[in-house]
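Board notes (copied after class):
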Amino acid sequence: VTASTNTLSTIPSETNNSGSNNFRTKTQKLGILLIDHGSKRQASNDNLHFIAKVYESKLLSKSTPASKKQVAVRGAHMEIATPSILTSLRTLLVEDQ
């Protein structure tokens, strides 16, 4: 299993008079993508998603109340099974933002 992380923290806003971008800070959220090869056996594929849920639960349980829901852990498969890496990355960037 490979882990990949992506922190969604800032989004560009207006440009100030000097021409440089101002960045308004958005609540930081950590996205973690667990990747395996993918299997014809559904139980093997389900195991990755179970691990992702357990890992997310552990991280959230160690979070302070102010930082709850600031982490999302998802699973993806390189081939054979779904969701694909691209689909899971899109989920992290769009739905879990």
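Comment from the instructor: The two ends are 23 Å apart (CA to CA). The chain has two helices and three strands.
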